[in-house]
Amino acid sequence: MSTPSVVTKNIENLAKLSNADMFFLDGSKHNSKILYKNNHNVDRYIQTLLLSKLDLLLSHSYTSLYYDLGHVLACKINSTQLICLSFLHQVSITNSNQIPISSSIQHLKTLAQIIFSTYNSVEAPEAEVYIINISSLKHFKPTHLLQIDSGLFYDTETEIIKAIVFSNKLQLINALSTLSSFNIVGEHLMTNNVIRGEKNTLISYVSIFNRAIIQWGYPAKLAFKLQYDLVQEIELTLKFSNLSQAITKIAWHYFNIFKQHRVNSFLPLPQRVKNYIKQHIQENITLDDIATDLNASKKTLNPAFKTAYGVTIIQFVRHVKIEYAKELLLSSNFSILEISELLSFSTATYFVKTFKKVAGVTPNQFRKSHSSKLLKKII
């Protein structure tokens, strides 16, 4: 295989679904290249950081590198080259069609294996993910964990809550940095069951953040659904790669959701409907749900939306679901039934019928045709 300066569309779709930027690192030339930009402002610091750790990254099949403002998942695709997905905590990840936010080893390993197998067209190694923790603000020196000062710990948690409800990004960065310096593991977890203790800790933060956003005007129905989904994800996670990073991701998740809610409150109704559909695309969306959650009249929804976008709400929902289904067909091994269930179609037959009506071909025909074309584009 010739030197890969770009990757297949399959891996780009994976980066898109993960809301990540994608980099290619070449150890033989000691350089890096941005392959896919999910975010407008890709920080050059990340590339410098990865190059500084190149030898270490190349010594493991899969590596997850954590720093103050995010983390990078590196997959070694051959002896000298890597493909990396870069995730930033402060970037919005509120859409429900994105990969789960919890910091779990099995999620990281699955992502890395998909990258490897898609790129090389062979089965990925069963190696474990190697975890690296550094501090981007302290010249890569490991931080010394502080013992718990109850007063300072409480004040820090209060600062996190204030940052979320007032959408203060800098305050959240500083407060989370302070929180990460506490020895949460030693003081707060069950000594006889660390995993259970970690889950209890994360669930308690979800509960605290949930109460805070409800008190500041976030719809209770949506908040409790968010809480349920996060708790389910936490409970199903077998092992967390880093508890502090998991707390950080959850905090940023609430920050972005509540900030978007505040922005949406001032948007025209059609745009609020459009945003709602994209955020709930995996659900069985009805006009009643939209009207209730947006506190709008059901009679005004379709006329206002069609005037603004030229299609009905149901037509738009169908289009967005099929576009997401296309991404899943190319970036995953999900079956037709699994995709239809993920997107809340009543039956797989109805999903296939809808897909063909919108795309002109069946899901299987689309996957077979596009996958074979994309794999031939590897350079």
Automatic annotation (TrEMBL):
Q: Which residues form the signal peptide?
A: none
Question: Which one Pfam family would you cite for this protein?
Answer: HTH_18
Q: Which PROSITE patterns match?
A: HTH_ARAC_FAMILY_2
Residue ranges occupied by any HTH araC/xylS-type domain in the UniProt entry: 271-369
Gene3D superfamilies in the record: Homeodomain-like
Q: Which domain of life is it from?
A: Bacteria
SUPFAM superfamilies in the cross-refs: Homeodomain-like
Assigned keywords, A-Z: DNA-binding, Transcription, Transcription regulation
Would you tell me the protein name for this molecule? AraC family transcriptional regulator
Species whose genome carries this gene = Leuconostoc pseudomesenteroides
Q: What are the top taxonomic ranks of the organism?
A: Bacteria, Bacillati, Bacillota, Bacilli, Lactobacillales
